[in-house]
């Protein structure tokens, strides 16, 4: 790996898809060349948005041997690993935390591969070469740090061995233990919890709502436009802005992912009123976006969680990752699991402080995970 050269690429437009896509992209849709390039061409990831592409390539001559997504960040929005306190610590020391470099999938807190390697390339060696290249890049460009967000556990272990600090957090995921159908899953619940969940599902039908699940080419252009409207309205209600993704992303980029996209639409009286969007990996369903133009009791739970579970059972998918945060998922059978991020800090004194912080934080994160697990709805002796 010592002979490999790091190239910081300002746009995936300069790199053919065949030089980027590898085995990891088939299993994890967010790493696909057309997904990441689509974020760029639609204006979602640009210098103006604070997500300036700076993809990391390891080259042997002209050949790309390994690659990782990268972005120069002028803020910490859209990352889902909250480091505002770190930025404040830099400021109090008279230093600037921004720009920083992140290896992440923009706006997507979903654990997955963060490095694509050609056959025969050792991932551990590739990460070591990337780290050496990033050190030099940081010195040239005045970067404070490098953050690898939501890597797989094996990758986090490699990076920890290279000296990066590992930060832990908790998400809530559903696991398919060979259930025949949704009722088979519910049979693992304590009686009172099972009745409450069935009541939620009935409540959706009682309001005259009918839901349908569409995949790939079944999703019409009009459906994409409708879903964008739901997404924009819901973001505006919650945060006062229209969301990180624009209409062009939904109408032009997402449809190119084919059967890796699943949409649930809720109809009332012949008119769609809400929707949820999932992305499908090799053995994981990723719940990503939700939107509505009217509020209905329990509809969010049905569209975003229960329909996802239905889909996983029907398709034999092993895991359902519905997104970040949300303690309300616990009582619906989503189990608390660790997620990770890895952090390299250029300033030695601050690197030591971050490492100490992450070690102390881990105790609190694990205590929270154990407490959340005690609140799961399963009967004694069942999962969780």
Quick take:
This protein is α+β, with helices and mostly antiparallel strands and 384 residues long.
Task: Kindly describe this structure.
The protein has helices spanning 23-27, 33-41, 84-92, 123-141, 153-161, 182-186, 191-206, 221-239, 247-253, 299-315, 348-373; strands spanning 5-9, 51-53, 55-60, 63-68, 71-73, 100-103, 116-117, 145-149, 165-175, 209-215, 261-268, 271-280, 284-292, 319-321, 335-345. With 384 residues, the protein is α+β, with helices and mostly antiparallel strands. The chain has 2 domains: 5-171 and 337-373, Gcn5-related N-acetyltransferase (GNAT) (Aminopeptidase), CATH 3.40.630.30; 177-317, Gcn5-related N-acetyltransferase (GNAT) (Aminopeptidase, 3-Layer(aba) Sandwich), CATH 3.40.630.30. The strands form 2 sheets. Strands 2-5-6-8-15-9-14-13-12-11-10 form an 11-stranded mixed sheet, sandwiched between helices. The protein has a 4-stranded antiparallel sheet with strand order 1-3-4-7. The two termini are 42 Å apart. The mean pLDDT is 95.
């Amino acid at each position: 790996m010592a002979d490999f050269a790091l190239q910081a690429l300002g746009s995936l437009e300069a790199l053919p898809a065949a030089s980027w896509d590898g085995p990891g992209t088939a299993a994890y849709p967010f790493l696909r060349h057309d997904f990441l390039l689509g974020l760029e061409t639609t204006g979602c990831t640009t210098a103006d948005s604070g997500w300036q592409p700076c993809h990391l390539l390891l080259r042997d001559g002209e050949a790309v041997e390994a690659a990782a997504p990268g972005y120069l960040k002028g803020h910490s929005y859209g990352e889902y690993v909250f480091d505002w306190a770190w930025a404040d610590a830099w400021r109090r020391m008279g230093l600037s935390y921004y720009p920083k470099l992140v290896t992440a999938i923009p706006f997507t807190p979903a654990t997955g591969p963060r490095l694509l390697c050609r056959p025969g390339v050792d991932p551990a060696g590739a990460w070591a070469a990337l780290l050496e290249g990033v050190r030099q890049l940081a010195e040239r460009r005045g970067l404070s740090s490098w953050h690898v967000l939501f890597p797989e556990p094996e990758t986090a272990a490699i990076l920890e061995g290279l000296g990066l600090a590992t930060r832990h957090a908790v998400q809530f995921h559903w696991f398919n233990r060979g259930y025949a159908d949704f009722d088979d899953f519910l049979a693992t619940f304590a009686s009172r919890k099972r009745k409450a969940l069935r009541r939620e599902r009935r409540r959706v039908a009682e309001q005259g709502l009918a839901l349908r699940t569409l995949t790939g080419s079944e999703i019409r252009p009009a459906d994409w436009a409708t879903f964008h409207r739901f997404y924009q309205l819901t973001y505006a209600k919650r945060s006062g802005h229209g969301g990180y993704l624009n209409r062009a992303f939904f109408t032009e980029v997402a449809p190119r992912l084919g059967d890796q996209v699943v949409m649930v639409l809720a109809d009332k009286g012949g008119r769609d009123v809400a929707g949820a969007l999932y992305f499908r990996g090799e053995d994981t369903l990723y719940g990503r976006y939700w939107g509505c133009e009217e509020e209905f009791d329990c509809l969010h739970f049905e569209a975003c969680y229960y329909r996802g579970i239905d889909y996983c059972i029907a398709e034999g998918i092993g895991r359902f990752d519905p997104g970040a945060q949300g303690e309300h998922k616990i009582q619906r059978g989503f189990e608390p699991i660790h997620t990770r991020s890895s952090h390299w800090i250029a300033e030695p004194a601050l690197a030591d402080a971050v490492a100490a912080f992450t070690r102390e934080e881990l105790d609190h994160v694990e205590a929270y995970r154990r407490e959340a697990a005690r609140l799961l709805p399963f009967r004694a002796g069942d999962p969780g």
